[in-house]
Amino acid sequence: MASLQDQLLKAGLINKGKAKQLHHDKSNQKKVERRTGVESVDEARIAALEVQQKNAERARELNAQRDAAAAQKAVFAQIVQMVEKNRQSKGNGDIAYYYTLGTKIDKIYVSEEVQKHLIAGRLMIVCIDGKTELLPRVIAEKIEERDPSLVVRVKKSSNEVDEDDPYADYKIPDDFTW
C-alpha cells in the first residue's frame, strides 16, 4: 500500500518539490526539538490528557461517594445490632410517657418502674425504623455518637427559680398526668 504522500502525488494535489520540502521541514523540526529540549505543542495529546484527568477525577469522586455510603450503612448496622442486643422491656404498664422526637410529640405506655427509670435518666428512648425502644443510658449515648437524630433527649427540669416569678411558690410535679 502506498503512503499518503505517494497517493497525493499520483492525484496531482502536490508536486515532488513540495513533498520533499514537507519531509525536510518535519525532520528539521525534530532535530531542533532534540537540540533545544523544547517540544512542539501537540494539541491532540494535551486534549487526551485533559480528558484522562477528568475521567480519573470523576472516578475518584464516585469511589468516595461509594465508600461514604458503605460506611454509613455499616454504622446503621452497628446501631441496629446495639438496639437488638440491649433493648429493655417497657413493662406491662398503662402509664403514658410523652416524649418529643424532632417536632413531633409521641407517647409510649410503660410501667411505673420504667417511668421512674426514664425520669431519672437511667433509660433512654431510641426511635429506629419507626419503632420505639428503651435502652440503658450508656448504650443510648454510644448510639447518639453515631447518629444523634435517633436518640430522644429528655430535658432535665432546672430547680433554679427566677426572683421575679410570681408562681415560684407553686411547684409542678414531674409525674403530672392529665
What does this structure look like?
The protein has 178 residues and is an alpha+beta fold. It is built from five helices and five strands. The strands form two sheets. A three-stranded antiparallel β-sheet has the order 4-3-5. A two-stranded antiparallel ribbon has the order 1-2. The chain is rod-shaped, with a radius of gyration of 38 Å. It starts with a helix and ends in a 26-residue tail after the last strand. Residues 157-178 are annotated as: Disordered. Pfam families: DUF2058. This is DUF2058 domain-containing protein. It comes from Undibacterium cyanobacteriorum.
Helix and strand sequence: HHHEEHEEHE
Low-confidence stretches: none
How much of the sequence lies in strands comes to: 15-25%
How many DSSP helices?
A: 5
Distance between the termini: 100 Å
- The Cα radius of gyration reads 38 Å
State mean pLDDT (0 to 100 scale).
82
Helix content: 40-55%
State the major sheet.
3 strands, antiparallel
Biggest sheet, spatial arrangement of strands: 4-3-5
The coarse overall form would be: rod-shaped
Structural class by SSE content: alpha+beta
How many DSSP-defined strands?
Answer: 5
InterPro entries: DUF2058
Region (Disordered): 157-178
Protein name: DUF2058 domain-containing protein
Pfam families: DUF2058
